[in-house]
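Worked Example 4.2. Consider the chain below.
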Amino acid sequence: MTVPQRRERPSGLLGFIFRRQTSYVRRLSPLFMLCLFGFGFSMLAGYYLGDTISLALLEEVMGGLPDLAGFDLVQIFFFIVYNNVTKSFFWMVLGVMGGLPPMFFAVLNGFFIGHFSYHVALDYSLGFIAAALIPHGVIEIPTILLSSAAGMGLGYAFINRLRGQGSLRAEFGKALLLYITKIMPLLILAAVLEVTLTPIVVAFLGFV
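Applying the procedure from the previous section yields the following structure tokens:
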């Protein structure tokens, strides 16, 4: 009689977060690092080019940002969730076009954050920017970059399919499952932190 072997649970932080999808996420690691490099480089570029490009023009390129001054916390929360969830999914799916659109999305986000930070730093400080970004950004930014990496994976799968290799449908199924079960919940969690923890940290550090 053969004793069925127990499936070993993935170890480490990735294993704790992604469970059965850990192997897929690890396969995306090179693409994630590429997105991270593009994001970081463009963020620095956006900061140092802050005085050469109009912030209003960049906001228009990003799709426009509403005036949140009259919004309550619940409205701000739903706006953040809607904005991040829809855009990250849209650009991930566009990854089938050779993998370039998700990379562009990561670079554009990095440039916008850097450029916006430059203008905020004119009135406040880099410490204020860090306090206003890090509490939720430690979850939001890697999650968005992961969706971009999954989109780039779709692009590679599409190219391989043209060569008669692999399955685009299988790759899309993995990306969609990852998005629904992990990326979307993490983006929602980041939005919760953005409207709750981040203001507390900013106030606690005396920036307001």
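Residues 126-162 form the longest helix (37 residues). The chain has a mean pLDDT of 88. Compare this with Example 4.1 before moving on.
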